[in-house]
From TrEMBL:
Keywords: Transferase. InterPro entries: P-loop_NTPase (IPR027417), Sulfotransferase_dom (IPR000863). It comes from Ramazzottius varieornatus (Water bear). Pfam families: Sulfotransfer_1. Residues 1-235 form the Sulfotransferase domain. Signal peptide: none annotated. The gene is RvY_04667-1. This is Sulfotransferase domain-containing protein.
Length: 246
């Protein structure tokens, strides 16, 4: 999504994905680390408008100014099973997070909301229930995978930068998982070189497909996860939301 938005605001010019790290163009609000120009928050405060900012924060943790100014918010949800597996490999490979357990340990922690950026369903619900507000665009990772051109056009309209079918097709092509995995400006390979993420354990762009949870989660783990999902999907603030698992 970051790459899609970057291309839209740069009129589809692919050079914008090759002229500097995508991470530096999207200050990460809650990150305490530094990018090439200083702390991420400092970069956010000084960068020219229109600014593109990244966050995993729940709705209620966003700055009050984000609500009062009607900042445009794009939220991408992913089905909880693929999210869990992806997160497991990420925390295993991340040298700061440095998770030492196995997937069985991680499943138990995730469904208890004892992981970074949890509770998962609370985070999703905060944006889902505001999906009809004019400054909120809610989509899913699965939609971006299965119908990328349609989703790209929707994002462009949301940003008040409508594009043609041809432009949407081109942007979708530049932002496929495989295209981004091979682009050192967007694949976070610099985090491997500087020792933050060990790509020998899991690269940042690891699989990217829908349903790969089935290759990792056991029958017993899946029973625990299914129970947790069913309990949460019955919540009033998540009614109408459906996930694609394969």
């Amino acid at each position: 999504m970051q790459a899609i938005v970057t291309l839209i605001v740069n009129n589809g010019n692919p050079e914008c994905l090759h002229n500097g790290l995508l991470e530096d163009k999207w200050p990460y609000l809650e990150s305490g680390k530094r990018n090439q120009t200083g702390r991420h928050l400092d970069s956010a405060l000084t960068m020219p408008r229109p600014r593109t900012l990244k966050t995993h924060l729940p709705w209620q943790a966003l700055p009050e100014s984000a609500h009062s100014a009607k900042t445009r918010v794009i939220y991408v949800a992913r089905n909880p099973k693929d999210t869990l597996v992806s997160m497991y490999f990420f925390v295993k490979a991340h040298r700061v997070l440095d998770f030492r357990g196995d997937l069985d340990d991680f499943v138990k922690l995730f469904v208890k909301d004892d992981c970074v950026y949890c509770p998962y369903f609370d985070n999703v619900a905060g944006y889902w229930k505001r999906r009809s507000e004019p400054n909120v665009f809610f989509t899913t990772y699965e939609k971006l995978q299965t119908d990328p051109v349609v989703e790209v056009k929707k994002v462009a309209i949301f940003l008040q930068r409508p594009i043609s079918q041809e432009e949407a097709t081109m942007i979708a092509r530049y932002t496929t998982f495989d295209s981004m995995k091979d682009n050192d400006f967007v694949n976070y390979s610099h985090t491997h070189r500087n020792g933050i993420i060990d790509f020998n354990i899991a690269p940042f762009f690891r699989s990217g497909k829908i349903g790969t949870w089935k290759r990792n989660i056991t029958v017993e783990q899946n029973e625990i996860i299914d129970k947790w999902i069913a309990e949460n999907m019955a919540r009033e603030d998540l009614q109408g939301l459906e996930f694609q698992y394969r």
